[in-house]
């Protein structure tokens, strides 16, 4: 789904949303009261646009994905909301790509992920971004390789109204078996930039030692998923190039 507030599925905003750069934004997301909850009428899992109200921060908007609304999958166990949060934690560990602040909390339909909603340009998705800002999508492509993202559709790359690029919908990540399916194959065979490799190496060391956000990430994943994550990091660090599409299905469906 394409996140934003232009659809009639979303509550009419009372004002600007909380900034993703707000230092306490995750605390606010976790503590705020849900005062409006509306089903977003697309996507394979139940997803809700929620209005949140906080006694100090005021009103904000987020996307809520409860465990109860997940469609059973043959290859991923229940709990995709945990992977949504784990992807955000990995992005904070790496420093890229931009993923809106995300928390796990209770909501009207039980426990799930709550992710800050970003105000997006209606035409700001991968298929338009690649024409004018392709190089800026490289961190997202590297992230998807490391996180083993099985569902990077074009509509999961967003440009907000301030020009920032965000990635959303990371429920199908961190599988212990190879699952990479993405629309971003533009960099296949290209060298991974040194700054990204340096960030990746630092994140890999932290993950092995269980330091900082890495300790939480290890708790969110199974032992097999953590071991596979470390292997993918090692492979990218050793090869220093973006992979090519494999023999199995390498593109998501639908593409957007």
Count, helices = 7
Distance separating the two termini: 9 Å
Structural class: alpha+beta
% residues in beta strands = 15-25%
Please state how the strands of the largest beta sheet are arranged side by side.
1-2-3-5-4
Radius of gyration: 17 Å
Which features characterize this protein?
19% strand; 3-stranded antiparallel sheet; 5-stranded antiparallel sheet; 256 residues
What features would you describe in this structure?
With 256 residues, the protein is α+β, with helices and mostly antiparallel strands. It contains seven helices and eight strands, in the order αβββαβββααββααα. Helix 5 runs antiparallel to helix 7. The model has no long low-confidence stretch (mean pLDDT 94).
Question: In a few lines, what is going on in this structure?
Answer:
The chain is of the alpha+beta class. The protein is built from seven helices and eight strands. The strands form two sheets. A five-stranded antiparallel β-sheet has the order 1-2-3-5-4.
List strands and helices in order, with pairings:
Elements: H1 25-31, E1 33-39, E2 48-54, E3 58-66, H2 80-94, E4 102-107, E5 110-116, E6 120-125, H3 126-132, H4 138-147, E7 157-160, E8 165-167, H5 194-209, H6 213-220, H7 223-239
Antiparallel strand pairs: 1-2, 2-3, 3-5, 4-5, 6-7, 7-8
Helix pairs in contact: 2-6, 5-6, 5-7
